[in-house]
Amino acid sequence: MGDLFTPSHILLVIVVALLLFGPSKLPELGRSFGKMLKEFKDGAKGLYAQEEGTAKPLTGSVQEQASSGKES
């Protein structure tokens, strides 16, 4: 299987989009897609920032925790 996003594939997608939606509707679709993508990225950043605040630092080495688990 070759590359998925070759220039000919991208051109074909653009032509099909023009045929389906028409030239007057494409700018509106592009704007709404851009807004959706921005909101998704902002939401993902919020999740990562929230996770970083709740992460606890390791207090012991993995070796110590493994040996204490075997003893009990």
From TrEMBL:
Its main location: membrane. InterPro entries: TatA/B/E, TatA/E. One of its GO terms (cellular component) is TAT protein transport complex. One of its GO terms (biological process) is protein transport by the Tat complex. Coiled coil: none annotated. HAMAP family: TatA_E. Forms a complex with TatC. Part of the twin-arginine translocation (Tat) system that transports large folded proteins containing a characteristic twin-arginine motif in their signal peptide across membranes. TatA could form the protein-conducting channel of the Tat system. Belongs to the TatA/E family. PANTHER family: SEC-INDEPENDENT PROTEIN TRANSLOCASE PROTEIN TATA (PTHR42982:SF1). This is Sec-independent protein translocase protein TatA. The gene is tatA.
